[in-house]
Amino acid sequence: MELLNINYQKYKLDNGLEVILHQNKNLPAVAVNVWYKVGSAHETKGKTGIAHLFEHMMFQGSENVDKELHFKYVQEAGGILNGSTSIDRTNYYEKLPSNYLELALWLESDRMGYFLPALNQEKLDNQKDVVFNERLERYENQPYGLAWEILIKNLYESNHPYSWPTIGFADDIKNYNLDDVVIFFKKYYSPNNASLVVAGNFEDDKVKSLIDKYFANIKNGKRSNHLKVVNKKLTGNKVVFHEDNVQLERLYLSWPTGIAYGEDDAVLDILSDLLTGSKNSRLYKTLVFEKEIAQDVSAFQFSGKYAGHFTIVATAKPGHTLDEIKSEIFEEINNIKANGISSKELHRSKIGIKSSFVFSLQNIDSIADHLNSYNFYLNEPNSFSYDLNRYDKVTTEEIINVSGKYLSQPFVELRIIPKSSKT
C-alpha cells in the first residue's frame, strides 16, 4: 500500500547535527522539531530522572534567552511549543506562523549551544522541586500511579536501562547537583547527538542559511550514547501485590516482547487492538459488556529501541475478583491461539489503525515529529508508507503465531488492591 511519500532533504552539518527539511508551501505555518538521542535509558542508578529534569531545565533560559522568555516569544508570535522525555529520546518543538521560523531556530540553537552560561543553583533547585512535586502528584499520590514503575522493575533486570521510570526515583530527584547537570549536558546535548526537522512553509535557500547561521558554530560532543543492552528472559511467572489508596482492584499482565519496528511489533499492536481497541473488541466485549465483571480493560504493545513488552490491564467491578478477570483473559488468549481471528475482525482493526494514522498527519507538527522518529529508529525519515504497510501485511496466521510466541511465555502479574484488602 503506497499511500504516502513525503518529500524531504536530509544532510548533516560539520558538527554532526542531522538536518531534515520537508517543504509544504500550502500551509501558513512551520514546525521546528529537535530530537536529542538521550532518554531515561541513558541514566545510571542513583541518577535516575535526570533526562526528564533536563527537559524542564531547557526551558529555564540560556545565554541569550532569559528564564520563561522561550515560552513568551513563541506564544506572542502565535505559536505553540513544548517538550517531552521518553525512555529513548528527548524532544523539543515549536509550531509558528512561517514568518517566525528564524525565531524558533534561534531559540533552539541558543539552548543547544549556550545553555551552561545561564545555569545556576536557584534554577536547578526550582526545577528539582517542580519534578519532585510532579512525581508526588502523578505517581505516588495518584491511584494506580506506581503501577508502571512496579511493572518495569519486575519485567527487567535491575541493571537494565528500562528498569526505572522516566520520572526518576524520589531520592535521586532530591540529590541532583549542578555537576550532574553540567556533565549530562556536555555528554548528550550536543549537535552530533541531535536531529533537527523543519517542516512547512519556507524557502529552501533561506532555511539552510538560517540553520547554518545558528547551529553550525556549536561544538560537537565527543562521547557515544550507544548502549549495550542484554535482554534476559523471565525464568518464571512473577506475581506482585501492591496495596494502594484505591477502591477497585486492578490487574496488570505483562509479557516481554520485541523492539520498536521489530518483526512482530505491528502484529502485537493489532493483537492489542483486537483484544481491547474498541467496544467490539474481544476482551472489552466479554469483560465489560457481556459478563460485566470489569470496569474497563485495555491492552498495548510498548516498543522501545532496546526492548518491549505487551501488557493487558483490567479493573474489577465491585463484587468481582481479579481471578475471574484473569481467567477470562487467558481463555480469550488461548482461543486466539487455537482458532485465530476472523477476516472481518482483522480488516476492521487495520482500517481503524490506518484512519488514526492518516488523521494524525493533518498537522504539520505531527509530520515533523514522525520524520524525526523514523530517522531515529529507522534512519529513514520518509518511512510513512513503510510504517503503515507493516499493519496492512499482518495475517491471521501471524496473530496466532505471536500469541503463542509471547503470551505462552512467563509474565509479570501485578495486582493493585485496596489497602484494607488481604493478599
Salient structural properties:
19% strand, single chain, 42% helix, 6-stranded mixed beta sheet, 423 residues, Cytochrome Bc1 Complex, Chain A, domain 1, 5-stranded mixed beta sheet, 2 domains, alpha+beta
What report would you give on this structure?
It is a single chain. It is built from 15 helices and 11 strands. With 423 residues, the protein is α+β, with helices and mostly antiparallel strands. It folds into 2 domains: 9-215, Metalloenzyme, LuxS/M16 peptidase-like (Cytochrome Bc1 Complex, Chain A, domain 1, 2-Layer Sandwich), CATH 3.30.830; 238-418, Metalloenzyme, LuxS/M16 peptidase-like (Cytochrome Bc1 Complex, Chain A, domain 1), CATH 3.30.830.10. The longest helix has 20 residues, at 121-140. The chain starts with 8 loop residues before the first strand and ends in a 5-residue tail after the last strand.
Summarize the structure.
With 423 residues, this protein is α+β, with helices and mostly antiparallel strands. The chain has helices at residues 50-57, 69-76, 101-113, 121-140, 147-155, 170-174, 178-188, 204-215, 265-276, 282-290, 322-339, 343-360, 364-378, 384-392, 396-407; strands spanning 9-12, 18-23, 29-36, 80-85, 90-97, 194-200, 238-244, 250-256, 294-303, 308-316, 412-418. Helix 9 (265-276) packs across helix 15 (396-407) and helix 10 (282-290) packs antiparallel against helix 11.
